[in-house]
Specification:
- By secondary structure, the chain is α/β, with parallel strands linked by helices.
- It is built from 12 helices and 4 strands.
- A 4-stranded parallel β-sheet has the order 3-2-1-4, sandwiched between helices.
- α1 crosses α8 (about 165-175) and α2 (about 35-45) crosses α8 (about 165-175).
- The protein is globular and about 45 Å long.
Length: about 240
């Protein structure tokens, strides 16, 4: 499907969802990354007067907030800045008994960040009678590369059926700022984090496998391992069988 057709269908679907659910618009977390950018622009096209971007630095690279502001200002998206450093540091002390150490790549600690961000998004969604538009794409969903009840928690996923390369195609069509398009994809959980390095496979390799089913044994094994390890993220809470 060509980008123009995809954009038309997705914006139409977003309008339908707002109406069907009795909401007024959308709130989107602006991370400075490409998935966030494309999601926010789609929401802006669907609800021009009822979309709110939230920039939520949390011991983050200052470039993230700068790029998020650039996106918001380029597309005239109203936004709020909510700095989460203090509540995050307090949570770390309460839970671990220690001060936050940015040098430690402790996933149990790092995952508090996206969960605080989702709490922030749902506050503003409830306050405005908006829906939370998540930013996960099909590639991330396939291998479970997101935080359960963090960035994985949303009311709907506008780009959830698009692999990463298709997100890049939409970004080009939508005229997302070049600086954002050319950024190395990162979840931003710690300084220098890189999606592809952490997963051990490139988005190109993942996309090719998802779309064609073809890949070398290394890629197959990584995808199968990640998908199996993260399968719990896709499951609803279990109920007793009786």
């Amino acid at each position: 499907m060509e980008p123009r057709t995809q954009v038309e269908k997705l914006t139409g679907w977003l309008r339908e969802e707002v109406s069907r659910r009795g909401a007024l618009g959308y709130v989107v977390g602006l991370s400075g990354g490409i998935d966030s950018a494309v999601t926010a622009v789609l929401c802006k096209r669907a609800c021009p007067d009822n979309v709110l971007g939230i920039i939520m630095p949390c011991y983050s690279n200052p470039q993230d907030s700068e790029d998020a502001r650039l996106l918001a200002e380029t597309f005239d998206i109203p936004y709020k800045l909510v700095v989460l450093d203090e509540p995050f540091a307090l949570m770390v002390r309460l839970l671990s008994g220690e001060d936050y150490d940015p040098q430690k790549k402790d996933m149990c600690i790092a995952n508090i960040k996206p969960r605080l961000r989702m709490t922030t998004l749902y506050y503003h969604a409830a306050r405005n009678q908006y829906l939370v538009a998540g930013t996960s794409n099909r590639t991330e969903l396939t291998v479970g590369y997101y935080t359960k009840y963090g960035d994985g928690g949303a009311d709907l996923l506008p780009i959830g059926n698009l692999v990463k390369r298709q997100v890049f195609e939409l970004a080009e069509y939508l005229a997302v700022p070049r600086r954002i398009i050319e950024r190395a994809p990162s979840a931003g959980l710690w300084a220098g984090q890189n999606d592809e390095t952490e997963m051990g496979v490139t988005y190109r390799e993942l996309d090719d496998f998802i779309l064609t089913g073809r890949a070398d044994n290394r890629v197959r094994e990584i995808v199968q391992c990640l998908a199996a390890r993260n399968a719990h993220k896709k499951q609803m809470p279990a109920l007793p069988p009786f």
